[in-house]
Amino acid sequence: MKGVAKASKELSFIKKAVQFAYRLRPVIGIDPRDGSPTISVDSRAASDSDSLGAVMATLEKLAVDGKVCIVFDEFQDILRLDNAKGLLAEMRSTIQFQADVPYFFTGSARNEMMSIFDDMDSPFYKSALTFSVDEIEPVLFTRFIEGRFKKGDRRISGSVTAKILEFADGVSGDVQELCEALWETTESGAEISADDFSAALDLIFSRELGGYEAIVERLTPGQLTVLRALAAHGDSQIYGNEFVMQVGLPTSSIRRIVG
Questions:
Q1: What does the angle CA 146 – CA 149 – CA 150 come to, to the nearest 5 degrees?
Q2: Which of 20, 153, 170, 247 stands 20 to 30 A from 259 (CA)?
């Protein structure tokens, strides 16, 4: 219901949604920051067993003019809810009769998305066409990165861009984070080089330090010992005699910790 309010610029559309979803006791409000309409839903009504069906029925009624498209982002997170299978079954029973409403289900955890749509025991089994998004082609990514830096009055060569893609292993979010850090640690008019990576990585590390410390605090003594050895010596000979002696743990323990 909040998504309906956010997507619409017409107050009449919101009022129509409220009318259809009367069982949820929704209330129209105005966002003081930008004046856009908002919808709040009574928490007691939203926890009713038929609240999901009520919202989805509202979406169908709003789609009669052909202007509604429903997108569930990170859809695999539904698996973390209580009674996930029951929720999926209820959604499937409603969606299969909504011929005029296009639904898109996107997610970044491919295995979990596959378990929803490809597992024979799942209520959503074979209920949607699958489209996988592969890594962005390096040529296209390079062109995009160079163009964005150029707009900010910074120059970056193809070799440096290739280093960015290699360092981030082609993961778009990591590429974006590294580029943003390079941007923040250089001046307008600069020509960015590989020498600028150190300052950018220091910035990223300072931002993530709290998270890293929290992870380290949860490690067992054995895990911490192996982590320190990996940081000092790398992982090329992780099961070799020298590494095993440095760690002071049997190979079987190291395999269990790493694996």
A1: 80
A2: 170
